[in-house]
Automatic annotation (TrEMBL):
UniProt GO MF annotations: NADP binding; oxidoreductase activity; proton-translocating NAD(P)+ transhydrogenase activity
Protein name: NAD(P) transhydrogenase subunit alpha
Keyword set includes Cell wall biogenesis/degradation: no
Location relative to the cell: Cell inner membrane
Every Alanine dehydrogenase/pyridine nucleotide transhydrogenase N-terminal domain range: 30-166
Chain's role: The transhydrogenation between NADH and NADP is coupled to respiration and ATP hydrolysis and functions as a proton pump across the membrane.
A single Gene Ontology CC term: plasma membrane
Domain Alanine dehydrogenase/pyridine nucleotide transhydrogenase NAD(H)-binding: 175-339
Enzyme class: translocase
Catalytic activities: NAD(+) + NADPH + H(+)(in) = NADH + NADP(+) + H(+)(out)
Family: Belongs to the AlaDH/PNT family.
Organism, scientific name: Ramlibacter montanisoli
The protein's Enzyme Commission number: 7.1.1.1
Length: 404
């Protein structure tokens, strides 16, 4: 078993007899500074460092790793982490690496053989990266591959925590670009109507956007192909707008499926009506493994009121709006169309804290003995699901979890 054994012992494992005490030396979790463009998040935060230390781990952080999220080197030191000057040193000393984004080729080059890597990996989209990680004889825990349908996995569900933050931030971006109040007001200068917001897709991000826009006082409507979300939309203060076409929208695992041409036509008619009526559209519609459905056409944008705003949260997957430009805010036909792909990162302190907590919950599952040594138990459904490489062998896709 490689994973519970620190680097020094692993290197000579075949030749040197390892004492039980040495084999159970606490592992070192290393947290490098994220290198992807626009990425401000960091994979652990000082308050979580303290908890990891209590779990028996040693923690090291690359100098400056938390700067963009407002966590200074000193706060990490005070929490019990070692701060090391360079990425190369950090990667070289780590038994476990906590990251947010999938590693770049340079970072894979720094990954020491036998290390455990935790972060967003997206194995289906990154086959080459998977091969490279396997070649490093790594064990890779892809937080995006967690079986979210297991209730036990919810505390580790970083996709949900990041989507919730992104939905909130999408509304804030919309409010920032919109020239009026969200809430209706009666003032001495006249009566101001509330803004009307339409949310396309009521998954985790969409529901967060509905709640945020409703709290700001807007009139909120939402649509999703999965009719089962209607009650949740209403409970958050929105109105569920149905497509006038009978078709079940749920695919596998509670996710959406591609709808029939007939449904799509009826949906386009309903969306065209909403586009004429509302001030703000926030789109969140995704189908796992498929390009984002095009729900807002250029013709619909043309009919929107001048000064309206679209926030396209599906911009990274091709966009729900035909006119979206990824990572840009553009004005077309008098409508501001926002295609930022870093919405969670724009709230870096909050998203880093929630992400770090999700990884801490994972660390607890990996280290039930609380001695800083991990056991990637492949008989545990949650751990099996997110283990995409085990000691150099690709173990993705996993078998379906055994649901109770
Ligand atoms: P997602 O980001 O993949 O999709 C966003 C939403 O877009 C979904 O609600 C989807 O139904 C909707 N959509 C897709 N195509 C559409 C279209 N053409 N028109 C309108 N809407 C469309 O999804 P997500 O937010 O990551 O999660 C969605 C599912 O995962 C839900 O069923 C949710 O309950 C489930 N989930 C379960 C758990 C859990 O059980 N612990 C946790 C998180 C999410």
């Amino acid at each position: 078993m490689q994973i519970g054994v620190p680097a020094e012992t692993q290197a000579g494992e075949s030749r040197v007899a390892v004492t039980p005490e040495a084999a159970r030396r606490p592992l070192l979790i290393g947290v490098p500074k994220e290198t992807a463009a626009l990425e401000k998040r960091v994979a652990t935060v000082p308050e979580v460092v303290e908890k990891l230390v209590k779990l028996g781990f040693r923690v090291a952080v690359e100098s400056g790793a938390g700067d963009a999220a407002n966590f200074s080197d000193d706060t990490y030191r005070a929490a019990g982490a070692q701060v090391v000057p360079t990425a190369a040193e950090l990667w070289a000393m780590s038994d476990i690496v906590f990251k947010v984004r999938a590693p770049s080729p340079q970072e894979v080059g720094l990954l020491r053989e036998g290390t455990t890597l935790v972060g967003f990996i997206w194995p289906a989209q990154n086959p080459e990266l998977m091969q490279q990680l396997a070649a490093r004889k790594a064990t890779v825990l892809a937080i995006d591959s967690l079986p979210r349908q297991l209730s036990r996995a919810q505390k580790m569900d970083a996709l949900t925590s990041m989507a919730g933050i992104s939905g909130y931030r999408a509304v804030i971006e919309a409010a920032n670009a919109f020239g009026r109040f969200f809430n209706g007001q009666i003032t001495a200068a006249g009566k101001i109507p509330p803004a009307k917001v339409f949310i396309a897709g009521a998954g985790v991000a969409g529901l967060a956007a509905i709640g945020t826009a409703a709290n700001l006082g807007a009139i909120v409507r939402a649509n999703d192909t999965r009719a089962e979300v209607a009650d949740q939309v209403v409970s958050l203060g929105g109105e569920f707008v149905k497509v006038d076409y009978e078709e079940e929208g749920s695919g596998g695992g509670g996710y959406a499926k591609v709808m029939s041409e007939g449904f799509q036509q009826a949906q386009r008619e309903m969306y065209a009506k909403q586009a004429r009526e509302v001030d703000i559209i926030i789109t969140t519609a995704l189908i796992p493994g498929k390009p984002a459905p095009k729900l807002i056409t250029a013709d619909m944008v043309r009919t929107m009121k001048p000064g309206s705003v679209i926030v396209d949260m599906a911009a990274e997957q091709g966009g729900n709006c035909e006119l979206t430009e990824p990572n840009q805010a553009v004005v077309k036909h008098g409508v501001t169309i926002i295609g930022y792909t870093d919405l969670a990162s724009r709230l870096a302190k909050q998203s880093s804290t929630l992400y770090a907590t999700n990884l801490f919950r994972l660390a607890e599952e990996l280290c039930k003995t609380k001695d800083g040594v991990i056991d990637v138990n492949m008989d545990d459904d949650a751990l099996r699901g997110l283990t995409v490489v085990k000691e150099g062998n690709i173990t993705w896709p996993p078998p379906p979890p055994k649901l109770p």
